Amino acid sequence: MRIAVVGTGYVGLVAGTCFADVGNDVICVDNDVNKIEMLNNGKIPIYEPGLEEMVKRNVTQERLVFTTDIKSAVEKSQIIFIAVGTPPKEDGSADLQHVLAVAREIGKHMNGPKIIVNKSTVPVGTADKVRDEVKKHTHYDFSVVSNPEFLKEGAAIDDFLKPDRVVVGTDNEETAETMRNLYAPFVRTGKPILIMDVRSAELTKYAANAMLATKISFINEIANLCEKVGADVEMVRKGIGTDRRIGPYFIFPGTGYGGSCFPKDVKAIIRTAREYGMELKILEAVESVNNRQKTILLDKIKNYFNNDLKGKVLAVWGLSFKPNTDDMREAPAISLIRALVKEGAKIRAHDPEALKEAEWRFEDLVKTKDVFLIKKRYEALEGADGLIIMTEWNEFREPDFYLIKEMLKRSVIFDGRNLYDPKRMAKISIDYFPIGRPSSL
Ligand code: NAD
Ligand code: UGA
């Protein structure tokens, strides 16, 4: 099939590349000239394991091209995906300006019947808005499909190639058939392609993210309770996760969920409900628990240093919102580092992939020499009073604890990801403060 994907970010680039990889001809479009130039020079603007080789392979085979020219992309394609950002507005609702701008462009450049597929995460009713916008500019036939994306950053290719399910919202049987054919190569193990009405498809995406965010806030509350009652959340997590009705996935406690999706999507579904006169009480609680959890380590750190962080130097391992990505959108590390600096601490931060993004996110604090961005993990420990773990990158899982002890002024680790065994830390005399587990003291 001939496909255009408008928006070449985390979703658009991965989706476009995977569609090309199964043999389709794909044109990826973006209005960011630098991004397209990079891609045309063989450079990948994001860090996503496996993506670089896959892009290269498909570009070489001339199945995948990158352009800023939306007109020719629309003209040459039967199916056009919209995969642009839908960031939160101040009131929490999803900002649809990019989606509707693309709809307008598609409408203007239609040269025959097309299928327009909304892959961006958008509130219920957006397909109607896209349809109205396209219709203003064309007399050709088209259908608007809702096809939300469920991939996770860091595992995006695998998720896209082997999805648990594909959700397609359309009331047109012919369009449904085309979408079934398009996704058939990805569901060969028997995973379902769920064809449903457009509104249900749009809501499915928010309901899925909201459910996952709920699991995380739930286990974080249980973790905080564990600390109060002297229980170990790692035991409780396993104890409940072995019940098949609960399951072992997505119940890892930590410093709260971050990323470009859960925070904004929880806000947006709350906002949608409000527009219909409804309060989503569970999700409001999920959001407030998460906001609190993002700085949960601050109390532990302040407590340990007798409420005086002035002049203290703290090393931070991990800045991205999760491992295997360079993405720092809504990363808990941002709130924690800013809070620590406010208390008078200096930060020496290391991340294997996110330092480039950290440069502009912490530009002000780097300038004032409150934050230092360090390329190597152990160099971040130089002159530091303690170590904080914010992201569970693999390379932080089994570090040289004796070197850590030797380098830190105080042998203390505050671990937002529960990477180490408190008993082992006690044995080697490292003061260790995990989440929801007994500390080593
Ligand atoms: P992103 O910010 O990484 O990429 C969006 C791209 O769209 C950018 O490159 C931007 O330049 C481009 N763009 C914006 N306006 C444009 C226009 N008018 N014409 C052409 N290009 C334009 O965003 P993302 O993370 O890929 O997310 C895209 C959508 O997918 C969002 O709605 C998001 O909620 C959803 N989603 C994201 C993920 C994820 O893991 N990141 C997963 C599932 C769904
Ligand atoms: C999430 C969903 O998992 C995807 O299915 C969805 O497509 C995507 O949002 C989206 O809509 O954009 P992503 O944000 O990339 O994907 O990453 P996750 O692995 O879900 O992690 C999100 C946050 O939750 C991270 O900060 C992570 O550290 C945290 N998390 C995750 C926990 O604290 N505990 C867990 O058990 C799992």
How would you describe this structure to a colleague?
By secondary structure, the chain is of the alpha/beta class. The protein has 3 domains: 162 residues, 3-Layer(aba) Sandwich (Rossmann fold), CATH 3.40.50.720; 87 residues, N-(1-d-carboxylethyl)-l-norvaline Dehydrogenase, domain 2 (Orthogonal Bundle), CATH 1.10.1040; 140 residues, Rossmann fold. The chain has 18 helices and 14 strands. It has a 6-stranded parallel beta sheet, sandwiched between helices. A 6-stranded parallel beta sheet has the order 11-10-9-12-13-14. Helix 9 packs across helix 12. It is globular. Uridine-5'-diphosphate-glucuronic acid (UGA) binds next to helix 9. Pathway: Nucleotide-sugar biosynthesis; UDP-alpha-D-glucuronate biosynthesis; UDP-alpha-D-glucuronate from UDP-alpha-D-glucose: step 1/1. GO terms for molecular function: NAD binding; UDP-glucose 6-dehydrogenase activity. Keywords: NAD, Oxidoreductase.
State the helicity in percent bands. Answer: 40-55%
Shape type: globular
Arrangement of strands in the largest sheet: 3-2-1-4-5-6
Bound molecules: nicotinamide-adenine-dinucleotide, uridine-5'-diphosphate-glucuronic acid
Q: Quick one: biggest sheet?
A: 6 strands, parallel
Number of domains: 3
Quickly give the CATH architecture of the largest domain. Answer: 3-Layer(aba) Sandwich
CATH class of the largest domain: Alpha Beta
CATH superfamily of the largest domain: NAD(P)-binding Rossmann-like Domain
Uncertain parts: none
Pathway: Nucleotide-sugar biosynthesis; UDP-alpha-D-glucuronate biosynthesis; UDP-alpha-D-glucuronate from UDP-alpha-D-glucose: step 1/1
Binding site for NAD(+): 30, 35, 86, 121, 153, 264, 329
Family: Belongs to the UDP-glucose/GDP-mannose dehydrogenase family.
Function: Catalyzes the conversion of UDP-glucose into UDP-glucuronate, one of the precursors of teichuronic acid.
